[in-house]
């Protein structure tokens, strides 16, 4: 990658040269920083970084990062492993060692999330969700699955919840929220631009806004009225750390249960009705088949 950057130096503007010099000195920065963060570090704009990527032969920053990662992999497989998988695991670890490290990391993630949880805040959030006429839940990429999971659970107990993983639809919904609505943004890093935009729009519309991210100082948390921290202490399985998702699910489970408690009789009735509605689409358990067959033969 350095040879490609150096070959194109004569064609670069002065601001692009700043990016080039930074990357020649620190070639792995694109794997660690977003386009906005790299632009800030180079003292330029994200648009200039995009033009820089195109000048050296890539269609955009994502493709440039892939190129950098490929170069690192070819040059130093161990460093590539550390960048993509993390420092907690080594290629030579036995299956037992991988299992033990993985289990301990996930347990610590859940325990840390539980210790950091402000129960008073979570109870207030649950009460707001239970009484709101409209709930928006925003998530992009891996967090979209978390948003969809919460939406499905809430909807089943009668909460008018909607999940948005596409920014145009999410912004449209956020723009028409009222002051009695609730909007939730989910992002492990708290730096996903589309999620920040949707939650910001919801706040501008007057909705009560909530963030789920790994720090109270993330851009997403700064937008929200309240935030819940979901911890992932171990840095591995980058960039899509599954322990972070388990922490998110843990918090979402907590919220769902507290919302369900607000009117337990109504919740039970709705769960029973929804279970009945889909019962014909589920195959009976094997023991039920055996019992029914025995009854048939007995007659």
Automatic annotation (TrEMBL):
Protein name as it appears in the record: MurR/RpiR family transcriptional regulator
Domain HTH rpiR-type: 1-75
GO terms, molecular function: carbohydrate derivative binding; DNA binding; DNA-binding transcription factor activity
Keywords: DNA-binding, Transcription, Transcription regulation
Pfam families: HTH_6 (PF01418), SIS (PF01380)
Organism in which the protein naturally occurs: Mycetocola zhadangensis
Residue span, SIS domain: 125-265
Cross-referenced Gene3D superfamilies: Glucose-6-phosphate isomerase like protein, domain 1, Winged helix-like DNA-binding domain superfamily/Winged helix DNA-binding domain
A Gene Ontology BP annotation from the UniProt entry: carbohydrate derivative metabolic process
């Amino acid at each position: 990658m350095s040879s490609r950057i150096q070959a194109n130096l004569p064609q670069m503007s002065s601001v692009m040269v700043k990016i080039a010099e930074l990357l020649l000195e620190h070639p792995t920065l694109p794997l660690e920083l977003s386009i906005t963060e790299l632009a800030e570090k180079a003292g330029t704009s994200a648009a200039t970084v995009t033009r820089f990527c195109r000048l050296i032969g890539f269609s955009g920053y994502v493709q440039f990062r892939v190129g950098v990662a490929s170069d690192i992999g070819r040059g130093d497989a161990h460093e590539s492993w550390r960048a993509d998988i993390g420092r907690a695991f080594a290629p030579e670890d036995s299956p037992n060692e991988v299992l033990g490290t993985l289990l301990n990391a996930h347990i610590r993630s859940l325990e840390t999330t539980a210790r950091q949880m402000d129960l008073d805040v979570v109870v207030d959030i649950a009460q707001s969700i239970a009484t709101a006429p409209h709930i928006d839940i925003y998530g992009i990429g891996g967090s979209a699955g978390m948003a969809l999971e919460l939406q499905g659970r809430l909807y089943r107990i009668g909460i008018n919840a909607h999940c948005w993983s596409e920014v145009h639809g999410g912004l449209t919904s956020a723009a028409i929220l009222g002051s009695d609505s609730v909007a939730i943004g989910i992002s492990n890093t708290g730096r996903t631009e589309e999620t920040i935009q949707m939650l910001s729009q919801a706040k501008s519309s007057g909705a009560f806004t909530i963030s789920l991210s790994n720090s109270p100082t993330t851009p997403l948390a700064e937008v929200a009225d309240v935030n819940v921290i979901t911890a992932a202490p171990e840095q591995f399985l980058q960039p899509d750390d599954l322990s972070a998702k388990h922490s998110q699910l843990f918090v979402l489970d907590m919220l769902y249960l507290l919302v369900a408690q607000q009117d337990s009789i109504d919740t039970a009735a709705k769960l029973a009705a929804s279970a009945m509605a889909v019962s014909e689409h589920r195959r009976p358990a094997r023991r039920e088949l055996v019992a029914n067959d025995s009854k048939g033969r007995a007659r």
